[in-house]
Amino acid sequence: MSDAARSPSVPRSIRRSAVAGLALLALASCSQPAPPPAPPPPPVDVLTLVARDVPLYQDFVGQLKGAQDTDVRAQVQGVVQSIDFQQGTDVEVGTQLFTIDPRPFEAALQQAQAAATEAKIRYENARRDAQRYITLAKKGVIPRKQADDAEANAKAQQQSYNAAMAQVDGKQVDLGYTKVTAPIAGRAGIAQVEVGDLVGGPGSKPMVVISKSGDVKVRFSVSENDYLRLFRQRQAERATGQEPPPIPVRLVLSDGAEYERDGRIISIDSTVDSTTGTLTVEALFPNPDGMLRSGQYGKVRALTSTQRNVILVPQRAVTETQGTYAVAVVGAGNAVEIRRVEMGERSGNDWIVKSGLKAGERVVVEGLGKARSGTVVAPREMAATPVPRSVAGGS
Fold this sequence. Notes:
It is a single chain. The protein is of the alpha+beta class. The chain has 3 domains: 44-55 and 307-394, conserved putative lor/sdh protein from methanococcus maripaludis s2 fold (Beta Barrel), CATH 2.40.420.20; 58-67 and 215-306, Efflux pump adaptor protein, beta barrel domain (Elongation Factor Tu (Ef-tu), domain 3), CATH 2.40.30.170; 71-210, CATH 2.40.50.100. It has 5 helices and 22 strands. Helix 3 packs antiparallel against helix 4. It is elongated and about 180 Å long. The chain starts with a helix and ends with a strand.
């Protein structure tokens, strides 16, 4: 109690008020709440960077063709009498595909045979006459000139007979062409003609297309710049004293799935198309189960280069603002640093870092909204994703 409260000169009522006030102050000081504890560091997912070799791939749009696509066309002009094969199935060499009405060709053959018979009779008569005249001339019965004329006539009749027989052979060939057969083994497509159609005329379309079984070709175009870059790269590899291996290629189908079998480049055009500035390239892919069909579209994915000992970061870990790139780096004490970086080419879902990061550093991949500069975070380590067997590259 204060000295004023104890003093006898102070009225008792005042002393009681002072004591009550002091009690209230003591009670108020005891009921004041303690400050709340600091929030825990926000959790974020981080990836520890490692240096590795990264293959880079580039996609080129291409169209599939059979390793050998053969247009089956009518060799004679006539009317289709029947379609003799199961469309869309495999056929062997010599399988009959169509029949063209043979009657006009049978009649033409009979006429040629009749003409050949007449020519043969004339030739036989002329040959006998020439032999008889030669004998008579030797005996002096007739002039030598008459024998020579008979011999010349026999030779002329022989030539006429030979020509008539050639006509017979030609008509027989034409008749044979009325049975249209498969020139190669493969898969026959849908017939492009119907029964009753006139075929074999000028500019007539193929009756059917047969694609050779087993392999397919993919034809695609490479820009002149891409060609020059690849050419110089392979020249540099040869300068090391080793022949570079063939460029591996993969096929990405129209549904986005990657074909399971590797292909290989088999031909490169000798000239650049002056209108498009591109070079035509063909790759060959095995097709044992017949999944690939001529006419399909797809992307040829080719290995264009391999970056050695580079840093990869997931694209989702990178923020872009007006052409500048930044990542959140978790440093000492788990404090976040927002660092500007220079990015290179893409490799699948990752980005190659040209500068600004080094192996062993940790970058925030998930939880970027919590990773502000200077913020202390609770990092959770993520496993590094393996480099895919083939990924789309590009800058």
